[in-house]
Fold:
Amino acid sequence: MDNLLKYILYIMMSLVVLWLFFAFVIANSKFLKPDLALELPENLPVLYSVEPAEIGKKLTDTIIYTFEASTIDQWVYFDFSRGSVVSDVSSLENIMNWDIALRRTKIVSNGGDTNEPGKVAVAKMDTTDFDSVLEVPENAKFLKDVKPPNKIDSQNDSFENWHSYKPSYHRIKPFDNVYLIKTAEGNYAKMQILNYYCKDGEEEIKGCYTIKYVYQGNGTKRFVNKTTPVKKTG
Structure:
């Protein structure tokens, strides 16, 4: 009887070990995670630099730009009017010269409790179709940054929950939300976050954003040329 009990316990332990091994293989198999296929190192966007240049009072093409914001204690400042990360901003209290600041997964804007004199505000659209946003809707809800009493940093609620986090393999994946940015100069941009990872040579870098955006520098709310008909988006 004792031998039979030992045999049964051995079988049960073996089955538990096999189940744990199978679960580990499934959780770590890239073939069973198609939603992360584009995040594998060989397919990641490449980190590159762009020199800031004033765009002026014109509409840009759709631009895709990859930049690093991986340092945990240092903000990286992006200015839509110059189409680049900028180095002439020393702190969040600079009034002009930047629109959004990024640091790992945190994104703040140049306005509200982050910087009271700043004019930047952000609206999250209901659509994930970037190309369908042809102008700023009249009912767009633009928000400025607020400082929650229980947090160290201020935040913009439009950027809250901009990504999902998969703890089983520690990956951050942006949602496809389209954001509208009222810039420091009072102009408008539309933006979508495409990726949180990039590669520099063979090295994978987290906290490396790829964004897609269009900037309208002439003060209007249109993201198309004057001759292009505008379909209302809400």
Residues 25-34, 229-234 have pLDDT under 50 and may be disordered.
